[in-house]
Amino acid sequence: MSTTVTFPEEYKGDVRLIVAASGILSARELEITGETYDATSLAAEIAKGTYSAVETVTAFCKRAAICQQLCNALTEICFAEAIEKAKKLDDHFNTTGRTVGPLHGLPMTFKECFHVKGYDASNGYISRCFEPSTTTTPVIQVVEKAGAVVIAKTNVPQTMLVAECENNVFGRTKNPVVSHLSCGGSSGGEGALSAFRGNALGIGTDVGGSIRLPAAFNGVYGYKPSIGILPFIGYAASGWTGVNTGIPAVLGPLAHSIRDMKLLTETVRATQPWLFDPAVIPGAMEQQPPAAKEKPIVGILTQSGVTPHPPVLRAIASAKSKLEAAGFETRDFTPHAPSFSAIREISAQLFTVDGASYPRRELAKAGEPVVSSVVKFGFWDMPRKTHEEMWAWNTRKGEMQKRMLDAWQVLGIDVLVCPAAPHAAISPEETTKELYTVVWNAVDYPAIIMPFTKVDPAIDLKNDAFEPKDELDKKIQALYDPELMAGAPVSLQLVAPRLQDAALLRYAEDLDKVLNGGD
Amino acid sequence: MSTTVTFPEEYKGDVRLIVAASGILSARELEITGETYDATSLAAEIAKGTYSAVETVTAFCKRAAICQQLCNALTEICFAEAIEKAKKLDDHFNTTGRTVGPLHGLPMTFKECFHVKGYDASNGYISRCFEPSTTTTPVIQVVEKAGAVVIAKTNVPQTMLVAECENNVFGRTKNPVVSHLSCGGSSGGEGALSAFRGNALGIGTDVGGSIRLPAAFNGVYGYKPSIGILPFIGYAASGWTGVNTGIPAVLGPLAHSIRDMKLLTETVRATQPWLFDPAVIPGAMEQQPPAAKEKPIVGILTQSGVTPHPPVLRAIASAKSKLEAAGFETRDFTPHAPSFSAIREISAQLFTVDGASYPRRELAKAGEPVVSSVVKFGFWDMPRKTHEEMWAWNTRKGEMQKRMLDAWQVLGIDVLVCPAAPHAAISPEETTKELYTVVWNAVDYPAIIMPFTKVDPAIDLKNDAFEPKDELDKKIQALYDPELMAGAPVSLQLVAPRLQDAALLRYAEDLDKVLNGGD
Q1: What is the structure's pLDDT at A1?
Q2: Is B210 a catalytic residue?
Q3: Has B341 been annotated as catalytic?
Q4: Which domains does chain A have, with CATH numbers?
């Protein structure tokens, strides 16, 4: 039996189909890593003794290895160490009859920007290679204590500030669902690996959509918490700290179900992370008024600024109908929402206050070139701002936060359904920065990506009567190509007000049942 | 009867004694404004019908007017309008038998930097005079709705970034307790007026000690909440917004008791201010683990970096003994605390990232000179920083936040007693920036000032054997002059971890009973 999978260059489809065909995983390993389980139910089986930690970790390592060959999603690989750790978990379980914690035996991956002692955290910069981390990021220590096993770290774009996934150290990651399309970014490796089911649970980071776009483009769940929910201390930065630019990054899960994201979040919060990370807010999820409503009022935002492509418009309309049919009251948020275009511009200016001085410095150290996907995204050449200009942009951001808060109050909605981007997964280097994600970083509202449908060329026809509002609208609409994008996941973004994370996770479970028929 | 009080230039003592002697207030007005009541008990009397809102407001307006003549504490004066509003409150009360809210009839004042529609918010800048505000700051709207009556705004220093209280528009405010000493700042007008009992309750702001130093220097209570507790939106800025410098300002009460600060805070929080101010944290006080302990473990910090003057050292030692005698466990925090000197330096650098470009611009508009107290304080000539330098300082701040959190965990303390400053009220322009307040802004811990004792030349002798640690320590110790400072209030600062505001207010009430014999 060969252990190498050759990826046919002409292959245009769902590369995940190769897993079963390859013969590398046993039937039992296919079962462990397959659709039967999410992390929650898999952990329950491990806790019952159905599967050992070693066989679970081994199965996912094999699948992750195949993903690596087909999609190039991994950076640092810890398979051997992971299996050793799994043995210890099994020893504990066999001796005591108990798990070490709620994540016992679950194989996890982390975005490249986290530290795992003994492995690089280069973030794809040549200058940082072969400098192993001397510490492990606290959130990883927390999940390890709860029984999770780190099997690998995953790929990121150069600069970590674009929604692609390419750098000079690790190359480009591919989308496993439609392999010629972008996997998104910056947590692109996580998104691809999760869709490939190469992990049970993964962690990415998000300052403008970096968890949510890979989740959306690869068709998995993703959750960007409010600032202060999950502990972010001790990661490997790839830019100046967000507190200064006014839009801090957060970490959060990419997963196979809403309840898996809840499991991860509640497991971490149960350790009282405010006792080791000064930025974490005590009590923010545990006790929070107002409590989640039995039946939330659902806002629907179809577009703001940039017109979404036909499959995205269909997804929003279909979600609205299904929710109404299930007895949810919906209210149209589009006319009330503050201008997303304005918030995108403010955010872009704030992300580039330094004129990209940090990544330029990192690249200069090794004399490496900037990659084309970073230049094309549009942040790279934005000018450096003075303090006074930065403060003016931050003042505008504050005004937008107020307008957003007021709009939610006026409309009286509890949760919002909106696009993640104006398009589904698109050709690499074509991902626009005119996204529907960055707005929620700018106002610090928690947001969840929920897979919902796929691009279907038979029904998602090009709109030949499209009347663009401006050049940008025209340009982005012109990117729609139903044949090219056929089969690409189309996801919904669910949003709740700042720090209403507990309510959002509850609402998302309810909406998922209605929209995806889960139970 | 004369209505003008002449302030004798040679007078060196407690100018509040002049109030009763002046004959301007009736016996009943002296009772209303006197030591008999704090805001909580006064509101209870008004609610019982003992005093009308009009006579309460009139009494405080008279007293505030005397304070203005003796101490120059006020900026904008709204007495006539206040009495009109009080009439409406009385009408409501007489008609319905009910108060409009928990602050019914309480005369309040606000620091100059808040907007009251129809009155200037110049912050002492000549260029901003005669431009009345067109809106009222939301927190004022909230307290007015709860029945409070705004009678005046109060003085601030030019730039609002020094612990003095002098500007070219309104002049300098004096300390009513020992009138030749500084009233502190930047909420200096509030501190002086509160000590004079010219209001029932006041609101200041604090980015480095601006509520706490005036409270300490004038011998009243003051509370700097954590960021996100009280709504700060819609005030009149006097510098670039704090989010960019990494140390945002907050507002909070100066008051005559801990329970008054609790009354104000709970009244505002009850309106769910997160529904109108995006920066307010929902649930942060209402439901917060861990709940306050029955008997907190009390940390004692005597000094860090700068050695406090003898009366301050006596106050800390005496508080420790009294708390131990009352059965509280105390633990010495000084050897565990991260260096306050380092945090002071980081904060000073962050406050001046713009090289004071904002106040320089404001002064230039009217061609007015910077006042000497601003120059002497030491921030004025600090150099402008690059983005990269600012980020480096913010990174150091983050490290200090982590060290502070760890130190509290290691020592296992719930609340900390420490100095407010190395000295009590001092000669104007001598207040040092080597304070014990700014550290709690840098790490965002809530802090309360509690009056405790007074400088007593008979026991607080100069320490002739003092061995300075460095030039700064020598310089500051040399400022101690027992005869000059005789009678100056010496206060304690009580601190709890970030967002443990509810617990801090509870602990402060308990400690106040032990230390000040309150009930």
Answers
A1: 43
A2: yes
A3: no
A4: 23-274 (3.90.1300.10), 298-516 (3.90.1300.10)
